[in-house]
Automatic annotation (TrEMBL):
One of its GO terms (molecular function) is protein-containing complex binding. Residues 9-142 form the NAD(P)-binding domain. This is NAD-dependent epimerase/dehydratase. Pfam families: NAD_binding_10. InterPro entries: ComplexI_NDUFA9_subunit, NAD(P)-bd_dom, NAD(P)-bd_dom_sf.
């Protein structure tokens, strides 16, 4: 029997990794974005959906079996997108009789009082309280996310970093594989977390990054006061018992470096 899956956040880091996984699993994928690409290929059906103003939601959800909800706005109005937008999506899902809403969350949202995490937790609660059957899967930070932060820091000659913060980053493709497995009509409630293969401090992460990039910048400890930094230092963003991914930070960085060198060589040809 065919299973029609709506993927929100289909243009994002995770959404991009989820699209082929869902297709390979035989799902009929409706990929949603506020601005769907005009040349997005034929593997998935692209559609315009805006969680804030409601564009598209009800029409799209009407013939959907499963929703994988990966849209988010960490840099924007997280309450409007992640909380109110999720509630709007859930109302439409309830009216349409959707079998399973898979909500993607983050390890530690209930322990670290960072405003984005508080909104993710509020969204988790909305999912749990909705009459729609649901699955909540929390993941740790993606390697690419940690990498983007270090790329920004790397522009300055000295790297001031909260070195004691502990993370367990994961390859987004490995996270996507675990999340795509949940995109079935069988809702499972809160399922085990999805984390990377090793817990590393920000100092470890930055030193490996510096080595793989062949840089020589000094790393300086930036003391961060407050409960958010304390939460990250305590390891609340990690799930030591749930090392799902196998690609280490170092391996991921080396692959990324090779891709970058190849692109630079192609550009100079
Ligand atoms: N990044 C990480 O390290 C990480 C780790 C663990 C869990 N997660 C979770 O994984 C999920 C995906 O994260 P990500 O890093 O892939 O996010 P992302 O790259 O920032 O992508 C966000 C997606 O949300 C869509 N979006 C934003 N505002 C929207 C709106 N108003 N209406 C509809 N769609 C909207 C964007 O699409 P358009 O702009 O095209 O509309 C984009 O596809 C989130 O739930 C996040 O909390 C992320």
């Amino acid at each position: 029997m065919s299973c029609r899956v709506l993927l929100t956040g289909a243009t994002g880091t995770l959404g991009t990794a989820l699209r082929p996984r869902l297709c390979d699993a035989g799902r009929e994928v409706v990929a949603a974005s506020r601005s769907p690409p005009t040349d997005g290929g034929t593997d998935v059906e692209w559609t315009a959906l805006d969680l804030v103003d409601g564009t598209g939601i009800r029409d799209i959800v009407a013939d959907i079996d499963v929703i994988v909800h990966a849209a988010t706005a960490p840099q924007g109005d997280t309450e409007a997108v992640d909380v109110r937008g999720t509630e709007r999506l859930l109302e439409a899902a309830a009216d349409a009789g959707v079998s399973n809403v898979v909500y993607v969350s983050i390890v530690g949202v209930d322990e670290i009082p960072y405003s984005y995490y508080e909104h993710k937790l509020a969204a988790e609660r909305a999912v749990e309280e909705s009459p729609v059957p649901s699955t909540i899967v929390r993941a740790t930070q993606f390697h690419s996310f940690v990498h983007d932060i270090l790329e920004t820091i790397a522009r300055v000659p000295i790297w001031p970093l909260p070195t004691g913060i502990r993370l367990q980053p994961i390859d987004v493709d490995e996270a996507a594989a675990a999340i795509a497995d949940r995109a079935t009509p069988d809702a499972a409630g809160r399922v085990p977390d999805v984390g990377g293969p090793e817990i590393l401090t920000v100092r470890d992460l930055a030193e490996t990054y510096r080595e793989v990039r062949g840089l020589r910048r000094p790393i300086v400890r930036l003391p961060l006061p407050g409960s958010v930094a304390a939460g990250f230092r305590s390891g609340a963003a990690c799930c030591p018992d749930r090392t799902v991914g196998t690609t280490t930070w170092e391996t991921w960085l080396e692959d990324e470096n090779r891709d970058r060198d190849r692109l630079a060589a192609d550009a100079n040809r």
